[in-house]
Amino acid sequence: MATQSFSTATALSYIGYDLAERNIVVEPSVVGDLVHEWAKQGVKTAFGHPGLVEEVANARADIHATVHNSTSERKIATIYTPSTELIPMIPTLYNLVGERAPYVIHAALKNKDSDASDVLAVRQSGVALIASHSVQQAHDIALIAHLASLRTRLPFIHFYDASAASRGHSHIHTVQYEQLVKLVKNQHEHVESYRKGNGEQTEEGASNGKMFLRPSPLSNIDYEKAVQDIVAVIGELKGLFGERSYKIFEYTGASDATAVIVVLGTASPAVEEEVHRLVVGGQKVGVLRVRLYRPWSEERFLAALPKTVERVAVLETSQNLSTGWGALFLDVAAAFHSGRWAGHQAPVVREAKVQSGSHGICEETVKAAFRHLEAHQEQGSFTVGGLTNGHHASGHVNGVNGTPAANIDHEAEGPYLKMLHQLFKDRTTVANVCENDSVWGKHGVRNPAEASAEFGLGLHLVQIQRRAAFANAVADILKGGSGVQLSTHLREVLSAWLRDRENAEKSAKHGAEAIKLLEAEKHKHHALGDLYEQRALFAKSSRWLIGGDRLTYDVGDSGVHHVVSSKEDINMLVLDTQPYSEKIAPTKTDKRKKDIGLYAMTYGGVYVASVAVNASYAQVLRALMEADAYPGPSIVLAYAPKISKTGRGVSVPLAQLKETKLAVDSGYWPLYRWNPALEDKGEEPFALDSDKVKREIHDFLERENHLAYVLRTKPNIKSEYAASAETELKDAVEGKVRSSYAQLLSSLNKQPLLILFGSDGGNAETIAKRLNAEAKQRNLRPRLMPADSFAVEDLPKETNVVLVVSTAGQGEFPGNARETWKALSAATPSEDWDLKNTRYSVFAMGDSHYWPLPEDAHYFCKAGKDLDNKLAALGAPRLCGVGIGDDQDPDGKETGFNNWRPELWKALGVDELEVKVEAVLPSDDAIKESSNYLRGTIAEGLLDTSTGALSELDCKLTKFHGTYMQDDRDIRDDRLKQGLEPAYSFMVRMRIPGGILSPKQWLAVDEIADSKANGTLKITTRQTFQFHGIIKSNLKQAYKDMNKACMDTIAACGDVNRNVMCAANPGDDEIHRQVQDLAERWSQHLLPRTGAYHEIWLDKKVVSTTENEEPFYGKTYLPRKFKTVIAVPPYNDVDIFAHDLGYIAIIEHGRIVGYNVTVGGGMGMTHGNKKTYPRLADVLGFCTPDQCIDVGEKVASVQRDHGDRTNRRHARLKYTIEDHGIEWFRNQVEERLGYHLQPPRAFHFVSNGDRFGWHKQTSGTWSYTLFISNGRVKDTPELQVKTALREIAKVHTGAFRMTSNQHLMLTDITEHQRPLISALLRQYNLDNSRHSAMRLHSMACVALPTCGLAMAESERYLPSLIDKIEDILEENGLRDDAITIRMTGCPNGCARPQLAEIGFIGKAPGAYNMYLGASHSGERLNKLFKESVGEAEILAELKPILKRYALERKSGERFGDFVVRVGIVKATRAGREFHD
């Protein structure tokens, strides 16, 4: 690394020349001069040969051909251009993305305001966008862009500040040529991949350049992987950059900031400087610099921000915005409402427009932005900076004379108009729109006649005729008919203009030249003077008519037909303003509206496009450019939803964005372009730019023989095209199946019964399935489906309907019934909603104990009751009264179900038939017994590519193989609306007794997480790993990869002895060696013996099974899961009393003399069911080390033989002991042993947490315990834990040891290695000292979005809750006091919250039961303190208690003991007392 004096231009050309083979220079510049000179001198690039340089004199005309020549030769190129030339390059950018060409475009922002409008306009073209400000940054970011482009095979636009302030010279650190050569060699495989043409788009005609605007390849590119690669490149360059640090999102400011501004990477460093001054002054503020703008990573953006943020201002320097809101603002707002924000509530996001003339963003700008945020306004933008320098916003045009009318600031119409003016500038002529609200209704037009397309058509025709007469006059002059004597030059120019007058670019060029010559020669003849007076007609106008919804009601009367049939070069922009959320409600479907696009395509000779600015900005630009270039009428249909009101915390632009995403994703508003001009050239005229298309358009394409091409570019269309615009979205395949099924059943003489269910947790679905099975036996004709899978507008066609609905949250509908309720709640009695012949009954399910307060009682079964009342209000007659299934009844929901069911069958007239009512699914034991020792049909299911799921029965078996099927609940509702199956994936848990891995194994699981899972690792509360997000097609290979690393998942889940946990914290190496040995031997002893695992996952030879294949377990295995742990006092880090079987090491004179055996612990329970409860294990007795395996086997065998196999909620060992007593159980064990256990020995526990930091082991080596927040090993811009551990694994010679509290120990570190490990820990900021003691003692389960049992957030919420509790701790001097705090999303107890001094168990979204009073050592359960509390209540309750604890505690008294002593809660000594 050397220090040199460079300007920005020198820095860019220095990197750009060396890291490319060809340099393409757009417009003369210093950069161009430098690369020309180096090429002339024969200076070699890092590729080993002199660079080539090409200048593009006319960028708009020649850039595409120049780039195409370069890509066809597989050259790697750098392009230097002003940002103003990017928009005309959009087709070129799409081609570069399609070619997967590693090109870097250095785009200069030359204005003083650092206006990035032109760069943002191409943000959806698929290229990567990365920004810099200073000379040093230009050098560094250019290097990152070039190497990342090679790595990702994506073109990059590096946009940088090229204002006067950045054009001077600065002393910067530069990477030397030899280092650049080495860096290029490191990318050899990626370079060769490009050379060989691997990965580019290969549609017919694309590779030979015939298709100028090819279909978008974006769907074929893994942009999340690209982000990971870019982050990796930045990390690899860290050594070269020294102290200069770059991230894709760079945060500066207070760690607990409540107000944050967001800026692009081109902003001045003065922003950070001012924020630093404000923070030093005590303000809780921060700034986030967006270094990498595309690909946009919502997850990394949100992770870079403090979770305390309440208000955000997005500083937009773009002066020529073509949208109502800036692009960066829309991305930021959408990110906070994506469901990924880990904070309690999405912050208020506002746009700060930095005015022209304010010299970009400076200190005063920052201060002004924070002042506006302090005003606490919920919505709206504000302006900071200086005067506008006379700049005017684009406006509507009255008639076609170009006179600006009122400024356009409407949220939807304005963006499209501004885009027209941005693209076509002075050529733009807009007719038909006179005021702001013209497309929104009758109040926007002065003259009603102007609302007709015929009015605007007439105005444009006049202009066309005037220009035609002008062209005739030019032709007459050229023929000499007027006797005009022309100069040779003028004659040539006028001839060229006449020839090219319909070409906008060429006519403008020739016209400008002609005007100059006419000015000199107009005095020669009055005919020349006339031409000069009409000189405005030299330019070819871009003629536009703009209208709204009313144009779609009557294609003939509105004048649309006249425009289409005119064959004139006139463009129509038709805005559809109806929000999708209103469209899908049957009662709000406007059946008068016609599909103008389909009409125009069918008519022929018309360019047609369907666009949406909030879905694809670049696609809108392409469509407008193509419409303008088409030599005939064009119709561009633009989606512009009108938002009348928004929900809390949702701004108008965000609401529009959501509406647009729904409309496009569903197929209601497909994005496409139809260009007949391409057909004349033998090319495909239709390009689909979204993934779905309406059925009517699909049929049109099929008739016109264009469907085959569309299916090549979008192969999923055939099975996923959307229903017609007049009906609810239906999945085509399911529709055909239902139709065929209905036709088949119509021939049968059976009474129909439609059974719909709304179910989140599966209980309502189970009831519905039982009804379905019984209905068949009663000779009915039942159909069963989720409520939202049924088209609600077809309800009047049904004769008998049963709805089974559970209750979610505060009386809300389950996810798969919400759209049904939305449609029904909006319906009113009418001819379309005549339900007098539709008989119905509702079975409503809930838990009355959830709502103990009188004011909350109405939430109980609210969803089902509301449904019953609404159907009655719509005139539907009841079959029988609403049934109520209450979990608090003697038999739970069965009590109400068994009372309601006979009434239903009686009303249907089938109650006399005798039927055998059976469970829909066989019992778990029956499934296990018939599974052929856990084989089932898993192997066959893995081969089924028609679904991402495995069958329900097989999912009962895959648990034994260490995997659970899950789906992403964050997007479940959206996928359901789209007719797609849930986003299924698999969680895979490893079997690692004692949680120990070698560094080589750590690197293996790290790679599996990246290549097969979601890129993260989860250290579980069972002292092992979980992978999340493994799709079915990757599942088998993931198992093979684990096997290669000598690891497996056998019995990590299921009704067997699961992963054996072992104390991780003892400092005595010999003691740990002994307990680790016991853990491994016990795990191996009770490992299932079936060959199913190796046959299914590792392709081992199938062998015939025998009756003795499972000598211990037998065919039915254990009644429920069985968990074993080993503890070493005085530390209870494994929570010994929370498990089925435990061994407490008894140490005398430095050696283990035996173990106290504990039995019958378990945390799982069911909300509101007092028959279920957590239980602490009993101490059964003492055994010697050589007796441990024998004792454990006999304990497990008693549970195997006597555990409850009829009720899985009562099947754990804890209930077996509760039912029979500990003495009975001890006798059973001792009888099987043939000897008596010794009395328990004394022991003492002090804590159930981990010991963090450095600890010396008895062997002389060291260990270091790392805090891992909730066990999630991942990288964020703030903290790269995963990368850090990967780098440590590369040099570590000891072991990795997971703890039972989700943390990680690095063990067996030698004195020689300790400084190296310490340096890596410091480098990646993995210092435990920055955490409060409460955070170090926190634990949370996964919960949402993947756990199917979760009722509330846990892992994604607990850290932010602790942030707020830490404020209370700080106030009371308790930051360093260890208080255990744990959270789960359901009552199953995975994170053992019942053993936390402060525990939270989720009941509903945002609502938790709060428990207090467990002992710090894990030997006493906590007690319910408050039910169904949200964050505000939690903080309000904890604040006085923590303050009282700080003031009144005794010396050494723990928080859990304190709240019991002072009577805040009662002590819970036994499980049966838990609910008292």
Provide an overview of this structure:
The radius of gyration is 36 Å and the shape is globular. The protein has 1476 residues and is α/β, with parallel strands linked by helices. A 7-stranded mixed sheet has the order 3-2-4-5-7-6-12, sandwiched between helices. It has 51 helices and 49 strands. The longest helix is centred in the N-terminal third of the chain and has 27 residues, at 453-479. Helix 1 crosses helix 2 (30-40) and helix 18 packs antiparallel against helix 19 (504-521).
Cα-atom radius of gyration: 36 Å
- Strand elements, count: 49
Mean pLDDT: 84
Widest beta sheet: strand line-up: 3-2-4-5-7-6-12
Class from secondary-structure proportions: alpha/beta
Count of individual helical segments: 51
The percent range for helix content is 25-40%
Strand content: 15-25%
Low-pLDDT residue spans:
201-217, 386-410, 433-451, 584-592, 715-741, 743-748
Distance between the termini: 71 Å
Q: Largest sheet, described in full?
A: 7 strands, mixed
Shape: globular
Short description:
Helices cover 36% and strands 17% of the residues.
Top keywords for this entry?
single chain, seven-stranded mixed beta sheet
Helix-strand blueprint:
Layout: E1 2-6, H1 8-18, E2 22-26, H2 30-40, E3 52-56, H3 59-72, E4 77-82, H4 90-99, E5 104-109, H5 117-120, E6 128-132, H6 135-152, E7 156-161, H7 164-167, E8 170-174, H8 177-186, H9 188-195, H10 223-236, H11 238-241, E9 249-253, E10 259-264, H12 270-280, E11 285-290, E12 292-294, H13 298-303, E13 311-316, H14 327-336, E14 348-354, H15 363-374, E15 382-384, E16 395-397, E17 404-407, H16 413-424, E18 428-431, H17 453-479, H18 488-500, H19 504-521, H20 526-533, E19 542-547, H21 560-566, E20 571-576, H22 580-583, H23 596-603, E21 607-612, H24 617-629, E22 634-639, H25 652-666, E23 672-674, H26 676-680, E24 686-688, H27 695-703, H28 707-713, H29 717-720, H30 732-746, E25 751-758, H31 763-777, E26 780-786, E27 800-805, H32 818-826, E28 839-846, H33 862-873, E29 883-886, H34 893-907, H35 924-929, H36 938-943, H37 952-958, E30 963-967, H38 972-977, E31 984-989, E32 996-997, H39 999-1011, E33 1017-1019, E34 1025-1030, H40 1032-1044, E35 1061-1062, H41 1069-1085, H42 1092-1098, E36 1124-1127, E37 1141-1148, E38 1151-1159, ...
Helix pairs in contact: 1-2, 1-6, 3-4, 6-10, 17-18, 18-19, 19-20, 39-46, 41-43, 43-45, 44-45, 46-47, 49-50
